[in-house]
């Protein structure tokens, strides 16, 4: 069984950032990456200082090169099982049957976006069906935009989308509006469509509008859909990590969980983390992990010294 100081599960921005810091700290590091990043459908990422507009795949490729350049290992695969062995060791089983162990474990497995069941919507996800106005709003500025109000809190989301265009329609999609919500939408010239969406209207591989259940056409060039976020947290469940009332793992400020030796970073714990935020969380977790390993190294050195003196 191969042994590492740290195994990082997830090779996105959070996981690779952590692996880079730990590899530079001369730790033995393994990154296990499933190769299915959440932002794969997006052609470009935005809001990452000095990397604005870079394709997400290019960022990950550069990150893998940097990690391996400092001696870290990155392998394609998935972890199917993990067991905590005391307070200083984890045993992991990979899908290919291989086994590894780690003194510390970082989960950066991300999340999945749960979307409404509307024909054609998933096919256009990350193209002209969008979820993050800060990631994509500038690229569709001053165009005809629609917002799907299918979950609670979508009215506030629509008001944020309004920052990028004066032509915004809000489709209630079965979610009731309070009088205050409706008044605020109208006050900012956001058209309210009291209906649900039947399907998307596409012409020449370009979104042109929405067809409602009532037969109405809502013209739009881009549709913003606030998704429901579902963390990839099966391994956290196996380790019995504490979660909050909404099911998200709870951590300290650097991603440390209640399980000794276990940290998390990125979207698996913070659904609103953008790429740059996730990278920062990975870095912060890595620094804390290394400090924890140093404490462990000191304790071990003291034990060995005392044993030698007594021998």
From TrEMBL:
Catalyzed reactions: [thioredoxin]-dithiol + NADP(+) = [thioredoxin]-disulfide + NADPH + H(+)
Gene3D superfamilies recorded: FAD/NAD(P)-binding domain
GO molecular function: thioredoxin-disulfide reductase (NADPH) activity
Keywords, in A-Z order: Flavoprotein, Oxidoreductase
Matches recorded under SUPFAM superfamilies: FAD/NAD(P)-binding domain
Record-annotated FAD/NAD(P)-binding domain positions: 4-281
Keyword hit for Flavoprotein: yes
The name this protein goes by in its record: FAD-dependent pyridine nucleotide-disulfide oxidoreductase
Organism: Nakamurella multipartita (strain ATCC 700099 / DSM 44233 / CIP 104796 / JCM 9543 / NBRC 105858 / Y-104) (Microsphaera multipartita)
């Amino acid at each position: 069984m191969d042994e590492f100081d740290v195994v990082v599960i997830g090779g996105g921005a959070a996981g690779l950032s952590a692996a880079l810091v730990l590899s530079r700290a001369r730790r033995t590091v393994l990154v296990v990456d499933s190769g299915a990043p959440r932002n794969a459908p997006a052609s470009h990422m935005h809001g990452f200082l000095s990397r604005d507009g870079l394709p997400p795949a290019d960022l990950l490729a550069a990150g893998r090169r940097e990690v391996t350049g400092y001696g870290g290992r990155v392998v394609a695969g998935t972890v199917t099982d993990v067991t905590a062995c005391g307070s200083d060791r984890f045993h992991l089983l990979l899908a290919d049957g291989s086994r590894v162990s780690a003194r510390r474990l970082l989960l950066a497995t991300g999340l999945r976006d749960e979307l409404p069941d509307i024909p054609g919507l998933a096919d256009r996800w990350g193209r002209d069906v969008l979820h993050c106005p800060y990631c994509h709003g500038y690229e569709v500025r001053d165009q005809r935009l629609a917002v799907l109000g299918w979950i609670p809190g979508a009215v506030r989301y629509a008001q944020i989308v309004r920052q990028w265009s004066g032509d915004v329609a809000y489709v209630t999609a079965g979610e009731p509006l309070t009088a205050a919500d409706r008044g605020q939408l109208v006050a900012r010239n956001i058209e309210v469509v009291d209906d649900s969406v039947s399907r998307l209207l596409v012409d020449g591989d370009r979104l042109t509008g929405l067809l409602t259940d009532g037969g109405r056409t809502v013209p739009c060039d881009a549709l913003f859909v606030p998704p429901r976020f579902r963390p990839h947290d099966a391994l956290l469940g196996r380790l019995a990590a504490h979660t909050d009332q909404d099911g998200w793992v709870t951590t300290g400020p650097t991603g440390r969980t209640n399980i000794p030796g276990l940290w998390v970073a990125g979207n698996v714990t913070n659904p609103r983390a953008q790429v740059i935020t996730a990278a920062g969380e990975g870095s912060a977790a890595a620094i804390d992990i290394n400090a924890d390993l140093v404490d462990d190294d000191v304790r071990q050195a003291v034990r060995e010294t005392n044993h030698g003196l007594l021998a």
